[in-house]
Sequence to fold (412 residues):
Amino acid sequence: MKIRQAEVIVTSPDRNFVTLKITTEDGLTGLGDATLNGRELAVVSYLRDHVVPLLIGRDASRIEDTWQFLYRSAYWRRGPVTMASIAAVDVALWDIKAKAAGMPLYQLLGGASRTGLLAYGHASGRTNEEIFDSIRAHQEQGYKAIRVQAAVPGLKSIYGIASNATFEANKGVRYDHEPAQRGALPNEEDWDTHSYLRHIPTVFEAVRNEFGPELPLLHDAHHRMTPIQAAKLAKSLEPYDLFWLEDCTPAENQEALRLVRQHSVTPLAIGEIFNTIWDYQLLIREQLIDYVRSAVTHTGGITHLKKVLEYAAQYQIKSGMHGPTDISPVGMAAAMHLGLAIHNFGIQEYMKHGARTDEVFEQSFTWNDGMLHPGDQPGIGVELNVDEAGKYPYVQAYLPYNRLADGTVHDW
Ligand code: GCO
Ligand code: MG
Fold:
């Protein structure tokens, strides 16, 4: 089963997506997601200029060997661009292998360990009333677990909160469709940790009072706090029994979470910007986290993320795979197959893509009463409509960034 062709397809239906399509000599095709929000074209070049020439003529069935070859032969290993590129090849080869076997991918990964995947959505609001409405709107869509992000009094704009216009247009059902600014330079937002630390516990107190003790609630701090600030937040949120507190400290500093752990039993999740098992080494071995946030798309594909999750399982740490709209339907499908098969699945992040995206990527996964299932088509169950994809050329887009009141650049 030799690889005949490998194409890198860039399309921007609602936002930019980078997809690798591999075709074998006997006509089987496989897709892999290589979308790296705001830095998409770096991955396109890595794939087109450096990886595609290595793929032509290789045996498509040798997935582990191809993974090791791409990782080790580059010499310059790790990093988001390299690992997203390897991930795209890896998922496309798993898609082909599963199609060749006539099975949905999760069967090749060991078969289903559960009937469906619990997913969480993103509620947000500028006031507690808006947050309540947004939570209710998610519940009406079936969501059984909900991430809550709140505007902070005194700050103009903040990660995870819809702009006024988007909020009105969508009645709080989703925040800005994706945070990257299309066709513009990075948006500057403001930040003040003390105001945030004062405000957030009051929001969770109000949400618990309104919705009761059962609803699983999550919160994303997006890497903006120092270890002691994060410990303070984790401790102050304890009475509201969060499912998790995500990215409470800068991702580069694994030791930071020791301090948070010493002060709180709020479950911790981290890893959406990690890309190898080495980023988790200390976190897993010392049991400093409860959930692994990596996406298949950014962590070397099914082959590598499965190893990370199996390592995590030995320490009772579960999956909580990244699933915002900047993971394409191809990346989401891969995550669902992996999540269905592994034993230590925790939860899946799931934001619905826009209508144009759903026309470009024909998908077979299902969303039923708050649970995802990848479907039973052979492969990963996603096909790219090339004609539709061709209608939407790449649009330059950047993620926002933060400045403190005195002008200092801060984590966003
Ligand atoms: C999440 C993430 C995303 C990221 C985005 C950046 O928890 O879903 O924090 O919203 O900000 O993926 O591209
Ligand atoms: Mg996050």
Remarks:
- The first strand starts at residue 3 and ends at 11.
